[in-house]
Amino acid sequence: MLSDLDIAQQANLKPVEEIANQLGLEEHEWEPYGKDKAKVNLDVMERLKDHKDGRVVLVTSINPTRAGEGKSTVTVGLAQALRARNQDVSVALREPSLGPVMGIKGGATGGGYSQVVPMESINLHFTGDIHAITTANNALSAFIDNHIFQGNTCEIDTRRISWKRVVDLNDRALRDVVVGLGGPKQGVPREDGFNITVASEIMAVLCLATSLADLKERLARMVVAYRADETPVTVKDLGYEGALTLLLKEAFKPNLVQTIEGVPAFIHGGPFANIAHGCNSLIATKMASKLSDYTITEAGFGADLGAEKFLNIKARIGDIHPDAVVIVATLRALKLHGGVAEADLKEENVEAIKRGLVNLEKHMETIEAFGLPFVVALNQFDTDTEKELEYFKNYCEQSDVDYSLTTVWADGGQGGLDLADQVIKTVESNESNFNPLYPLDLTLEKKIETVAKRVYGASGVELTKEAKAQCEAFEKNDWGHLPVCMAKTQYSLSDDPTALGRPRDFTITIRELRPSVGAGFIVVLTGDVLTMPGLPKQPAALKMDVDDDGEALGLF
Amino acid sequence: MLSDLDIAQQANLKPVEEIANQLGLEEHEWEPYGKDKAKVNLDVMERLKDHKDGRVVLVTSINPTRAGEGKSTVTVGLAQALRARNQDVSVALREPSLGPVMGIKGGATGGGYSQVVPMESINLHFTGDIHAITTANNALSAFIDNHIFQGNTCEIDTRRISWKRVVDLNDRALRDVVVGLGGPKQGVPREDGFNITVASEIMAVLCLATSLADLKERLARMVVAYRADETPVTVKDLGYEGALTLLLKEAFKPNLVQTIEGVPAFIHGGPFANIAHGCNSLIATKMASKLSDYTITEAGFGADLGAEKFLNIKARIGDIHPDAVVIVATLRALKLHGGVAEADLKEENVEAIKRGLVNLEKHMETIEAFGLPFVVALNQFDTDTEKELEYFKNYCEQSDVDYSLTTVWADGGQGGLDLADQVIKTVESNESNFNPLYPLDLTLEKKIETVAKRVYGASGVELTKEAKAQCEAFEKNDWGHLPVCMAKTQYSLSDDPTALGRPRDFTITIRELRPSVGAGFIVVLTGDVLTMPGLPKQPAALKMDVDDDGEALGLF
């Protein structure tokens, strides 16, 4: 069988100029990065500011297995299918982080005949956006330590520096470090730690800024540390918002590539979906929707995390009104939720699917709670049996659920034609009545409770003493009006990763809050959140190489 | 007065396609990065492999002041002047590191009307090469720590890990750190440190590799640590040379931009000139010389460091035969060498110039020792007086030294026409009889002695006990055949930065040797070498910003 990389390398890419022309971009509105990538200037938003936004379709999923349910693949496949149905369509996706690529995943650009290309470039450095974010993040760390070294006029308490350094790698040895060692000429010793770059607040800021001016304001608002009296110190206090904006101004321009069937693809930004909101950049989604009748976009993990944040955070900030949602499910994941062990997911088990459908049901209710119509897309695998598929179809028909079986990995757009038809029907019947789940003037605690009850199905929330104190302190700092960004396990609707299916009668424990004032949300931690992954015993990198023609080997 | 950034932003850039066409590049041989930058594929080297190399002119200088003597400016100005004299010419320069740009320098792409453009992009991220090197360097660190964490089958002694992490920033707090803290799930605690990226061995490797295959072999040979028995552990032992090559394959392609007067400029690679060899990439110099009749290139710091290494290391590996050398001097630097304090360099002082010329004399002797003809270029400043200039001219004429007064900062190529004429005359009289100063089969100690005596004018060298032991150990490891890469202060011919002019009767103390087996040289430390700069009290970054049109502010 061909690998994703084989398929990508055999693809016949159009020159990016052709993709730009498809979108109606004027020549001065984009710049090439290689022959198959471009950055689109923000001027286009000015030219089209009175232009009506196209339709936006959000792709989400049920609670995923460890392998993921193929949301990106379905997103690309659906767009290709809409194109085959003569629709004017773009996709907007996140850009992959190098850490997981070198660690386990090998690549993260969809799969098979529903992927974005040039696959190897997108997975490796791409147009340098993530490197620019790494640099800006670490420049800020250097500025903070230099500020302290040079006299500390802002009176930063070195035990209360919340800003961490980053690398775009999986590197567990950097989770907890001590910096500034070596004596009085080398700085001031203090505890520090590194996150993976996609967990940097700067990534979230870049992904939620609505303009370059807004980017600078958000960067200025970022809290980096506290004084001994616990008052916050911001980037603006230090005076570096201009330099950070300068370092990020090219990275802020959306990247334009194509799907393997030539659909325009905006690949831009990729914040974590736990301590951040897990969606591609707002500016890319808005740009795509200005330039296309349909924009297909996705959000990380399941609907309880990615979609909730897309709808309560990103859509609200960006004034985005989604027209429909696609909920991706796989029989594998349904079996997992029905109690089957991960090793046995390939075996036929209709009973398990029957039990596991409760997970899908909850996510459907959630999307309805946001006032949005949806289609369930079953992303088919070779191991799915006739009996299982039959059961699934019957279930949907009896429950009056719009659904579609898709084979977009193997068949590209042709494998998603029925899904495209369902989506068109849904969108054209104009059932969207979108509203965020909570108003911003609720207290932080009430916002948390709303998400826990209405999205997770919890009976309530319990805040630790520390979290309660933080709620109070944050309201005092005038951060109470911000939306909440929940950091929760992606495997369960609850905060217990082993509670699969549809857990009931549970409470969510809130352990800690972290302000992302620049990004514009308060992160709410319900358990341990890993912001720096580690490498496995045999990293994917061990198989990577370059052939004699300079082509990549070992990305999957 | 206009700043460098003002001048650069007012420049009327040609589309990079036009520059590529000037060089005779075929369409498939280059890829655009924006409208004014390109990467040139290595295919062109294959097409032109039987093509005779053009002429190579190396620009170096006397021992510099803290501000530098304008080598890059003269390099660009000379190329522009040669173009004005209807010569087919390219420049090959180093790419700037962000650390100094954000710290003190603001920018490093020549100056005035003799600079390379787009100035702001070249100074900020450019085509991402340095970020790729940062990533590859730190991926290797993560692989090393993961190897140890996962069982350490290579038996790395965690107290003997020589590979350090890097950031492309000035960040003194990272010079000495402890990583791997946080308990048994977070790694193995150990001492570590960060260098600035341009001090990474990978930068030197990229700048000395002759092909992609050679790049991989050099990466494989890099020593990262030692076992308890002091035997070296290499990248090949760990198995990551393929992944590192994959991460670097785009960065290895030379970047093509233009000078402000439209001369093709290859800006590629920028290793430190102390613990590395301080020249742009060998592949860029070779490519430029395949594509142009004249290639003007430079080497870091004064002739005692940059030129010595260009000639003994880079030229030898790359089979480059320079045709002439330009030695840049300024009256400011001559006055400094004549005993004037830095604060008083703007005041007329003919006597000091007279005394300071001994420094220039030594560098002229050195270039002659390599068998190379030279022209002295006096890079003029507003503060130079008639009397001073007259004295300098008389000196050159009486000593029978080819020289030229240049005003390329203010006048571009027109300010270097006489220099161009001198260079053409020198090159066409075909006086080059280039030879490295030592054969590779000398012992390390003899090589060091040769450089110290013939380049620095020392009476001898003294090795510390530690350095002596390292010499022996390195010969035992079969590294004795490598050239030496001297790390010495740039301010003096000796190892004492305060010994200006032409010190005599001094010995050079060799404190330590460090193997850069992948790069292919042994670093020889004569004093403290700073591989991670710090930021000043008021970093240049404090003045940086972006205007309403997204244009850079505050780069100088």
Assembly state of the chains shown? homodimer
Rg of chain A, nearest Å:
23 Å
Mean pLDDT of chain A: 96
Let me know the largest β-sheet of chain A.
Answer: 12 strands, mixed
Annotation, overall tally of beta strands of chain A: 26
General shape of chain A: globular
Largest interface, counted with CB-CB under 8 A?
A: A-B, 75 and 75 residues
Helix share, percent of chain A: 25-40%
The CA-CA distance between the termini of chain A, in Å, is 12 Å
CATH homologous superfamily annotation of the largest domain in chain A: P-loop containing nucleotide triphosphate hydrolases
CATH class of the largest domain in chain A: Alpha Beta
Kindly report the CATH topology of the largest domain in chain A: Rossmann fold
Keywords (chains A, B): ATP-binding, Ligase, Nucleotide-binding, One-carbon metabolism
Catalytic activity (chains A, B): (6S)-5,6,7,8-tetrahydrofolate + formate + ATP = (6R)-10-formyltetrahydrofolate + ADP + phosphate
InterPro entries (chains A, B): Formate_THF_ligase (IPR000559), Formate_THF_ligase_CS (IPR020628), P-loop_NTPase (IPR027417)
Protein name (chains A, B): Formate--tetrahydrofolate ligase
Structural summary, described in words:
2 copies of one chain form a homodimer. Chain A starts with a helix and ends with a strand. With 556 residues, chain A is α/β, with parallel strands linked by helices. In chain A, a hairpin with a 5-residue loop joins strand 25 and strand 26. Chain A folds into 3 domains: 4-127 and 251-429, P-loop containing nucleotide triphosphate hydrolases (Rossmann fold, 3-Layer(aba) Sandwich), CATH 3.40.50.300; 129-248, Domain 2, N(10)-formyltetrahydrofolate synthetase (2-Layer Sandwich); 444-526, Formyltetrahydrofolate synthetase, domain 3 (Roll), CATH 3.10.410.10. The mean pLDDT of chain A is 96. Chain A has 20 helices and 26 strands. In chain A, strands 1, 2, 3, 4, 5, 6, 14, 15, 16, 17, 18 and 19 form a 12-stranded mixed β-sheet that branches. Chain A has a 3-stranded antiparallel β-sheet with strand order 7-12-13. A 3-stranded mixed β-sheet of chain A has the order 21-24-23. The interface between A and B is large, with 75 and 75 residues. Chains A, B: One of its GO terms (biological process) is tetrahydrofolate interconversion. Chains A, B: Pathway: One-carbon metabolism; tetrahydrofolate interconversion.
